[in-house]
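Hi there. Long-time user, first ticket. I'm pasting a complex I've been working with (about 726 residues overall). I'd like to know whether the download I got is complete or cut off, because the file seemed smaller than I expected. Thanks.
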Amino acid sequence: MLHGVIMAGGSGTRFWPASRQHRPKQLLTLDGHRSLLQATLDRCQPWIPPERMWVVTGESLAAETARQLPEVPASQILVEPCGRNTAPCVGLAATCLAARDPDATMLVLPADHAIQTPRQFQDGVAAAVDLVNSDSQRLVLFGVRPSYPATGYGYIERAERLPGASLLGGSTAAFGVKAFREKPSVEVATAFLQTGQYYWNCGIFCWRARRILEGLARFEPELHAGLANLAASFDTPSWDTAVRERFPQLKSISIDYAVLEHDRDLCVLEAPFGWDDVGSWAALPRLRGADAAGNTVDGLHAGLDTQDCVIRSADGHLVATVGVRDLVIVHTADATLVARKGDDDSLKKLVGSLASRGLAGFQ
Amino acid sequence: MLHGVIMAGGSGTRFWPASRQHRPKQLLTLDGHRSLLQATLDRCQPWIPPERMWVVTGESLAAETARQLPEVPASQILVEPCGRNTAPCVGLAATCLAARDPDATMLVLPADHAIQTPRQFQDGVAAAVDLVNSDSQRLVLFGVRPSYPATGYGYIERAERLPGASLLGGSTAAFGVKAFREKPSVEVATAFLQTGQYYWNCGIFCWRARRILEGLARFEPELHAGLANLAASFDTPSWDTAVRERFPQLKSISIDYAVLEHDRDLCVLEAPFGWDDVGSWAALPRLRGADAAGNTVDGLHAGLDTQDCVIRSADGHLVATVGVRDLVIVHTADATLVARKGDDDSLKKLVGSLASRGLAGFQ
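Hi, the file is complete. Here it is re-exported in full:
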C-alpha cells in the first residue's frame, strides 16, 4: 500500500514576522485558505486517504500540526523531541510504516512546498509507484527541471534513461542518477542548465519503507540500529517515552548524505508538475497572483501609487501605502516588517540578530 | 499685561495615522516628550505664567487639550463649537481678554509649530511687546526669513524700516508691511527670496486685545457685533450656552483677510528665532535629529541596511526594516503607514479617500 509521509518539522525565518520559531512556514496560511501543510495533505486526497498519511514534526509544533490535520490519526503524527535532520526523520517514519505494513510504499513529502498542479502531481506519484512496483529495490527521486540557475538548491545529474520505463504515456521519463551537486555557484548552475542533464532535488521521494531502512542499515548501521531498537516500542504504551529518550541519540544527518549519495539503485523521475519551494515573501505572487498594479495583498490595505508589493496584514489592521514599490510589508500583532522584496538573506540576518538586540521574544 | 493665546483648534491629516480627526497634530508627542501644544505653552514659561495663558480649541479636542494643559485655568480654555477660521477665534480670545484686562497685550501663537530656540523666541516677543507699548495702535506680525521658495505659505512683503526701532540691540528689525502674498508659485517664491524683502507669515502676532477688536469693528462690523454680544456673557453662568448658540453664526474668515490685509498700522518683526511648521512626517528629523544612518526612530525598531527613514511605533510593537530608504513608517494600534518620504500630497489624498474605500473609521 502507498503511504504518504509529510516531513513537517521545519523551522525557519524567511516568512518572519508571520513565521516564528514555534510557527514555521508550513503552518502559515499563505494562500489565504489552507496552510502549506494542509495543502500537502490535500493534494494526496483521495488517492492516499488520511488513514495512510503520516506526519513527522517537532515537539513545539505538534499541537498546531495535529490541530491543522484532524483527519490524520493521532498515532501517525510522529513527534521528534529534537531536530536530527532528514535521515532520522525518514527512518523513523519508515520504521513505523514497516511495523504496520511490511510492504508499505512510502511517498516522502516536504510540508512547506507548493505544487500548483495537483492532478499532474498525482500522475507523477503514480509513475513513481509504478517504478517501485516494477523493481522494489528502486529509490525514486523527483527531479524538477530547473527554470533558472538557482544557487540555493541541490542538483541531481541524471544518467542514462531507464530502459523500458515509458511513463505517463511517454510524457515524462526516469533516469539513473550520476551525481549530486549541492548549492552550486551561479556560474556552475548556469552550466548545469545548459547541459539539460540536471534537475533540482525537490525532496520528494518514493520507495519501499523496508528498502530505505536497508539503505540506512548498509550506510549508517548505527543509526539503523537505533531505529530498529525504537521499532520494538511502536504501537505500545512505551512509544512516546522511547522516542523521547532515544531519538535525540540518533546521528544528525540528511537522508541524501546518509543513503542517496551512496546507493546505486537510485532513479530520478522528471516531475510532471509545477513545483515551488515558496522560499520567501517574494514567492507569494506566484502562489496567490497579483493585482493590476502587481501587488499581492492579504488583509486590509489602502494604497496610492503602490506597485509590485507584497502586503499582508492580520486582524483588521489597516496597512496604508503611498508612493512605494517592490516592498514586502507584513503586519502581525506584535511586529511589522518593511523590507525590500527579494532581500531574503538580509531578512534572515536581521531575524538572527534579534536576540543580540534584546528582542529575542520576536524570533 | 501680556497674555498668550494658543490657537489649538487645528485639524489635519499630514501626520496620519498618528493624527486623526479627533487627535490632530498639536496633540501628538512628536519629539518624544511633550506635544506641540504643550511645547507652545512651555516656551512662554515663566514669563507668561499659566494664569495668563489662553487656549482656543474645538469641541472634540477640548477634553484632551485640557488634559494636556492642567496648568491653564479651565475658564481660559475657550471651546469653539465649530471651526470658523482664525478671525472669530482671535476675536473670541480678544473679547475675553479685554473683558478681564482692558489693556491686555495679546500674543497669538499657533499650537502646532516648533520653535527650537526658546530663548530667542522670548527675545522676539519682548521686542514685539516693546513695539506695541511704544505705539498701542500697532499690530505686530512675526516674519520668518524664508529658507527656500516654499509654495504653501503666505508671504509678507516688507516696506520701510520703522524709524527708531532698534530691537534686541540691533540684532533684529521691524518694518512696515507693503503687501501679503498667499501661496505663490515656485517661480514667484524664488523671486521673492531673491529680493530679500519677503518673510513667511508664521501666524504669530502681538497686539493689544482692544486694538484687534477695533480692527474687526472697522473691517468686519457684523463679526465684531457678534463678538461684543458674546462678551456680555463672559465670566457668567450663561457663557457656554451663549458660545454654543452664537459662535456658529459668526462669519468664517481668517484674521489676515478680515483685518491684517486692510489695516494700516501693521508692522513685521523679523523673527529672531528658528521656526518650523512641522508640516509632515518628513519634518521629524529636524525636530528630533537623526542617527548616523539618517534614521529618525521613535519606538521599537530593528533595521538592517535602512537609511534616511522616519520610523515610529507605539506600544512596544516592533518595526523591522530591511534594505529600505527614504520611507516613512508609522505604526499605530489600528493602522500602519508605509510611505515615500516627502510624498505629503499623496498621503493627504489617500487619507481623504479612506471614507470612499469604506475605511472611514481610520480617518
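A couple of notes from our side: Residues 2-276 of chain B form a domain with the Spore Coat Polysaccharide Biosynthesis Protein SpsA; Chain A fold (CATH 3.90.550.10). Chain B touches chain A at residues 16-17, 300, 302-305, 313, 316-324, 327, 329, 331, 334-340, 343, 346-347, 349-350, 353-354, 357, 359, 362 (CB under 8 Å).
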